[in-house]
Amino acid sequence: METEQYIRGLDTIGRLSEPAIRNAIKALTLPDECRILDLPCGIGSHMCWFLDEYPQVRITGADLAEEHIALARERLQQADKIRSCELVLADMNKLEFENDSFDLVWCCDGLWLGPKDMGCPAEEPYDILDGLVRITRPGGRVAVAFWSSQRLLPGFSDLEATLNATKFAMRAFHPSRRPELHVMRTPAWLRRAGLTNIEVKSFVADLCAPFDETKSEGLVTVCSYFWGQAKPEVSESTWEKYSSLVNPESDSFILNDINYAGLLTYTMYVGTKTSR
Ligand SMILES: C[S@@+](CC[C@H](N)C(=O)[O-])C[C@H]1O[C@@H](n2cnc3c(N)ncnc32)[C@H](O)[C@@H]1O
What is the model's pTM? Predict the structure, then answer.
């Protein structure tokens, strides 16, 4: 995917998930004197939301993509929050932070596993998590969060179920992969990394009409991400129906329905590093 298109997606989809992520951040109940690492920080949205909720914390944002770091810096400057932040280029496979540096490591949508040429950081999560634990102080926490579900086509459950059952929709977790590598097995990953007091909580973002242009674009992008290339796997009539529902030019464009109500969820997994 082109960098510009990827960044646009991070921004528009980020606006849809914002209420869920803000509630996850709030549920962490952090003290004022807290050093946070946001890895990968993407374009810095979560750093802004952490600082809205906890204005006294210090937060480091790290990401592999220079373009994302540059945008994060711009965004934090515009929000007048840059003084509380540091931004660094980093590969989560080779973290150069000192041992015991952070009270909280926040890793949201950063541990989707798979081939590196698909943009994934690794095939297995274990070495990365060992690195995250190493840089967390004893008594500190590692919080890993993932987009975990969605309902996007209200009134068309059959259609949505058919599309969800395609290999294209399931490509982020190919059925041939080991079940223990599915993101919903994160508690086992955290335990294997030596973390304790594992907590799991899901957060919802309601998706309700009317939508502004950015949110509408974000929702169309999400549909296309999940189902955009599922055509060869479904019947012609299914594809026609789906295409008309997600086409902004069509009379049936589902997001123009003032009664549209969908949802998405994020699930957060938190573990604590044992004090020495
Ligand atoms: C889906 S985005 C999530 C960004 C942010 N956490 C959010 O939820 O908005 C994934 C991010 O991971 C970054 N990334 C991919 N591989 C990485 C690696 N090996 N080390 C650090 N960041 C990486 C990408 O540049 C991208 O910004």
Answer: 0.96
